[in-house]
TrEMBL record:
Keywords in alphabetical order: Membrane, Transmembrane, Transmembrane helix
Sequence ranges of Low complexity compositional bias: 369-400
Highest taxon listed in the record's lineage: Bacteria
Chain spans, region Disordered: 358-400
Annotated protein name in UniProt: SPOR domain-containing protein
UniProt organism field: Thiopseudomonas acetoxidans
């Protein structure tokens, strides 16, 4: 997954309008905590001082944001020339950049001062703002000091934004050059309350609230960032991204020696061979059962024949009986009739085999015709009449499930300070509705608009506080926990319902 896809998933997962922790978001707001006073000092010194203004702080301390705010504060009263100290490190490159911004005829000191004077006479100040000013060499700093002094009729206000080493560089230059003057302002880190306020401003601008972080996570952000806003942005985004992409790593076991691996392979081979032999044995048994099955049935039938043969006035071998089966019944019940005929033939064959030779040598005298009863010794099983199977009863319709509806009314009835767990969001209302119908009364969903499209957000439960909601999230099914559910106040949900 490339960076753009990861950012898209990050924005969609948390339903951000834009990345709230980008260096400059699409809805940039200058957060005033411990920075408003610095901005006021810069505006004051730019108006009345003729020295270099240094704004120093470590990386991530908010120097670039403060520079943006300085430009925005004077965009209608000054001509702002922004330069990168990394790109214009010496006086030659610096003069070319400034001359281009002022449209000076000559890229030298006199030409620049004349251009500054013309702009000032037109009623506009000249502000030169240098990012990464710690990369400037001594010649560039001397040039900037000359422009800050001016020619008596006009001067430029010079702002140098850099790391703390810039102040050391200027102190060393001042020892050999008396013309260098500067005023340094060191940025201070934010307190925990300032960090919370800053995060709240950023998140609200992006369409979310501070509830996206737990108390433990907020404390962690304060500790890891040291109070510097740039590091707060980075730590906050890393934390949210980790919720989506990071998974707990499995503990790796030490590799097994080769002799143990060979032993395991041998055991596995023996086990598979044993299973193969077990699979072969039942096949032979089933074959024997098939061969012996007719004999076992014949024995049972022969016993019944012997019992019937003991009765008086019965004939032993009615060979014609299998043919006496009614053809209409055979057509009606073909399978059962065939079984009956086969069983009768087997019974007759066994009855003949069991007749002793002596009995066969002395045939019984035939009974008188008048008294003869045509009852055979072995009665064929009468084929049961074809019974019309009743049509299968139609399955009773399942009781109708109450259709899920948008939960706008339900959410509006909940106390605003309570929390719900946001489980997932879907672009399909049917998906959200089916999930709520299937999983019970604790789940609800509402509709919101995100980037011009409707989203259907499923939530779980109603909890008294943030900690209770976080604890409940740990008890959700694994497939829901994988979506990283997070607590939200009902106040923020009601604001989003569309």
């Amino acid at each position: 997954m490339d960076i753009s896809q990861a950012n898209d998933l990050y924005l969609e997962h948390y339903q951000f309008k834009f990345d709230p922790f980008a260096e400059r978001s699409s809805s940039f707001q200058f957060y005033k905590a411990k920075r408003r006073s610095v901005l006021e000092q810069l505006i004051h010194f730019a108006r009345y001082g003729n020295f270099l203004l240094l704004i120093t702080g470590p990386r991530g301390s908010g120097k670039t944001v403060l520079r943006h705010a300085t430009v925005a504060a004077a965009k209608e009263t000054a001509t702002n020339i922004v330069i990168s100290g990394v790109q214009a490190q010496d006086a030659g490159f610096l003069m070319q950049h400034i001359a281009h911004g002022l449209r000076a005829e000559q890229p030298d000191v006199l030409g620049l001062l004349n251009a500054i004077e013309q702009v000032t006479l037109a009623g506009t100040d000249v502000h030169i703002l240098v990012d990464d000013a710690h990369a400037l060499n001594e010649s560039a700093i001397v040039l900037l000091q000359r422009l800050a002094k001016g020619n008596g009729a006009a001067r430029a206000s010079v702002f140098l934004f850099g790391e703390p080493s810039l102040q050391t560089t200027l102190a060393d230059i001042e020892q050999t050059n008396d013309e260098i003057e500067h005023h340094a302002i060191e940025l201070e880190p934010w307190s925990a309350a300032d960090i919370r306020g800053y995060l709240q401003v950023r998140l609200e601008a992006a369409g979310q609230s501070l509830d996206i972080f737990t108390e433990t996570e907020l404390e962690r952000l304060c500790a890891e960032s040291g109070g510097w806003p740039g590091l707060v942005n980075q730590a906050a985004k890393d934390l949210l991204m980790a919720r989506i992409f990071d998974r707990p790593r499995r503990k790796t076991l030490p590799p097994l020696p080769y002799k143990y691996l060979l032993a395991l392979l041998a055991i596995a081979f023996v086990f598979i061979y044993f299973l193969y032999q077990q699979d072969e044995q039942p096949v032979a048994v089933r074959a024997d059962d098939v061969v012996d099955a007719p004999i076992e049935r014949a024995m049972v039938s022969s016993q019944r024949v012997n019992e019937q043969s003991a009765a008086p006035n019965t004939q032993r071998v009615p060979l014609q009986l299998p043919m006496a089966v009614d053809n209409t019944q055979q057509a009606a019940e073909p399978v059962e009739s065939r079984l009956t005929q086969q069983e009768t033939m087997v019974e007759v064959a066994i009855a003949q085999a069991e007749v002793k030779p002596a009995e066969q040598a002395v045939p019984e005298p035939p009974a008188p015709v008048a008294k003869q009863t045509p009852t055979p010794a072995v009665q064929p099983k009468a084929a049961p009449a074809a019974v019309k199977q009743p049509a299968p009863a139609k399955k009773s319709a399942a009781p109708p499930v109450k259709a899920a509806t948008q939960g706008g009314a339900w959410y509006a009835q909940q106390p605003r300070q309570r929390f719900a767990l946001q489980v997932f969001a879907s672009a399909s209302e049917q998906t959200a509705k089916n999930f709520v119908q299937k999983n019970g009364q604790q789940y609800h969903y509402f509709r919101k608009q995100h980037q011009g499209k409707y989203l259907y957000v499923v939530t779980y439960g109603s909890f008294a506080n943030h900690e209770t909601a976080v604890a409940a999230a740990r008890n959700l099914p694994a497939e829901l926990r994988s979506n990283k559910p997070w607590p939200r106040t009902f106040a923020s949900i009601v604001q989003e319902i569309n």
